[in-house]
Specification:
globular; 2 strands; two-stranded antiparallel sheet; mainly alpha
């Protein structure tokens, strides 16, 4: 089985799951319960890991058949490393969604619709960014050092970023342009993005929230795309791992959105991962870090960040109750 068939499998799985999600399980707008969100989060994780197994079974052997290629850089390990990195970065982005929904006062039953269409837009933009990025690296090899340096700088900035630093949706230039040139209403009309008022189609706050979600994904891509390219320049690997990670983001938002404030050290873990991947890109060829080591470092840092956050939250809780 070649990548072309797996591309087709990937496309069919994504389309079928999205059709079931929107057309069956969320055909009628409703508040997503924690139980429902956890089930969908588990489903997307299982699908993402199953795809890694498919790559291991059908792609790795063809890759390793070439004696010039190293077993340390097999596609399945690159996929897992990209998937884990993107998933961690996506979790951090949930904070931004909380800010956007609070700013626009989006009703809970309409939040899923905004995230659904927002992630569809993200799928298109990630494909474009990754394709351009890989093409640039192949044509201008020095671009890998530029992206590596960008990751190191981004990671350092994230490490020292203040905890109360928040996105201000009102400063979003696309939102300001939309308000200036589009007729808008400040009233919600169910889960509609546009509504007919008089002889005009008017944008609702739900559409404005969608615009901010879409444009902030461009900012997310400044972290995730270079990080993915620092792990692999295989478009099939980086795109499929990115998409399976962000597709589970919607469900994760409803499952644990309110609990993320307790992951105090996640930001520091993500900053270390970005710096690590950036340094990996900057190293000379003879000192390149294997994908096995990279996967271990990414997984280990995230695990330590989560454990340290849980311990801190428990200690803070015990002090507050005493």
């Amino acid at each position: 089985m070649e990548n072309g068939i797996l591309w087709a499998v990937f496309g069919v799985v994504v389309l079928v799951m999205l059709a079931l999600d929107l057309g069956v399980f969320h055909k009628k707008a409703h508040v997503v319960s924690v139980r429902e969100a956890l089930i969908w989060t588990g489903i997307w994780i299982v699908i993402g890991l199953a795809f890694a197994m498919a790559i291991r079974i059908w792609v790795d052997p063809a890759y390793l058949a070439d004696p010039a290629r190293s077993a340390e850089h097999r596609p399945s390990l690159e996929y897992l490393t990209c998937y884990l990195t993107e998933y961690a970065l996506s979790v951090d982005n949930i904070f931004v969604f909380l800010v956007i929904f609070t700013y626009f006062a989006i009703p809970e039953e309409s939040q899923h619709r905004v995230l659904f269409w927002g992630i569809l837009g993200a799928m298109v933009m990630r494909a474009l960014f990754l394709w351009v990025g890989i093409g640039a690296i192949e044509r201008f090899h020095w671009m890998i050092w530029v992206l590596g340096g960008l990751l190191v700088v981004t990671g350092i900035k994230l490490f020292f970023q203040k905890e109360d630093a928040e996105l201000d949706p009102s400063r979003n230039i696309v939102l300001r342009l939309a308000k200036k040139f589009l007729p808008v209403t400040d009233k919600f009309h169910g889960s509609k993005f546009f509504v007919r008022i008089g002889d005009k189609n008017v944008a609702t706050p739900l559409f404005l929230a969608l615009l901010v979600v879409e444009t902030t994904d461009v900012l997310f891509a400044l972290d995730s795309v270079p990080a993915a390219l620092g792990i692999s320049q295989n478009l099939f690997v980086v795109y499929t791992s990115n998409i399976f990670a962000i597709l589970g983001l919607r469900s994760l938002f409803f499952a644990v959105g309110g609990l993320l404030k307790y992951l105090h050290y996640l930001k520091f873990g993500l900053s270390l991962i970005l710096v690590f991947v950036g340094v990996k890109m900057l190293l000379p060829e003879q000192y390149k870090i294997s994908i096995t080591v990279a996967l271990s470092v990414v997984g280990g840092v995230l695990l330590l960040a989560v454990i340290a956050s849980v311990v801190r939250a428990r200690l803070v809780g015990e002090r507050a109750s005493s």
